[in-house]
Amino acid sequence: MKVYHIDTDMGVDDGLALALADALLRDVHSVSTVFGNVSVDIATRNALIFRNLLGRATSWNIVKGASRASDGFFIGADRVHGQDGLGGATHTLGPAVLENVARETVSDLASTTGLSGSQVTIIGLGPATNIPNLVTRYGPSAIEQIILMSGAFFDRGNMTPDAEFNAYCDPCALQATLDLGIPVTIVPLDVCRKVQLSRATVAAYTRNDNSELTKLIVASHMQYMDFYRTVEAIDGCFPHDAIAVLAALAPERFFYVSGKVTVACGSDFRGRTEVDLGDAHVKIVTGGELAWVREMLSRPPHSHRA
After folding, report:
1. Element spanning 101, H or E
2. What's the CA gap between 41 and 16, in Å, rounded?
3. pLDDT tens column, 103-158
4. What is the CATH number of domain 2-304?
5. Domains of the chain by residue range
6. DSSP assignment of 123-155, as one string?
7. How many CB atoms neighbour CB 141 within 10 A?
């Protein structure tokens, strides 16, 4: 049996990715939270909100993970994702949703245990801090593959000129993940910048789906896109994490290079990712059928549900 575990720092693009994963991936078993876009406490609250709106309270196990990087480092992205991690949109939610979430409790990462007879794909949407621990908890032989939205190889970083945000947050955990020897697919900033999700496209989601979930996704993206209009001069955003979900769904639709990836952990070039091309267990997405990716993101996530 194949199952998915999603590790997320639950910002705006994580929410879209989680809803897309629910619609497209048959067996999402667990969701773990990590610091990054927001604190781990806010990330956990947002994961619970999405689980509630998706109707997965009895089928998705949510566990709270790391509040800081493996070296003690912490940074947030409030100016990008808003204080609540969802572009300030949580105030639009009905009181019943918030009351349900307030009553819920979650376990910590240490409670994660192996799944007999299952092969696990881990999809990492935030800093990699939790990933080595998850591999240990499930057992390395149970991990089929790891898919990470992380790094920048042939493009400029979005945290520093050298580093993408997730890689910058915990480069040592990213390197430790790559060193496990488990097959890893990296969806880097390079390919994410090739896919632009426009404001008009997202605003139109509610024409076909007026659910509270879709309204939250739309509202959360509006402030997020304001940030991108300021820093990237586009009226839209790059849907980073959703691309990682699509790479898990249909790997054959993407192009890759393979190689040995190294991550700078020192203070001078923290989070810089470099690749020495050649046969290796690490693949980097460089492109692919991006028209298909854009088409998949052109309508609300739950329109893909069978």
Report:
1. helix 95-103
2. 19
3. 998 999 988 888 877 899 999 999 999 999 999 999 999 999 999 999 999 999 99
4. 3.90.245.10
5. 2-304
6. EE-S-GGGHHHHHHHH-GGGEEEEEEE---SSS
7. 10
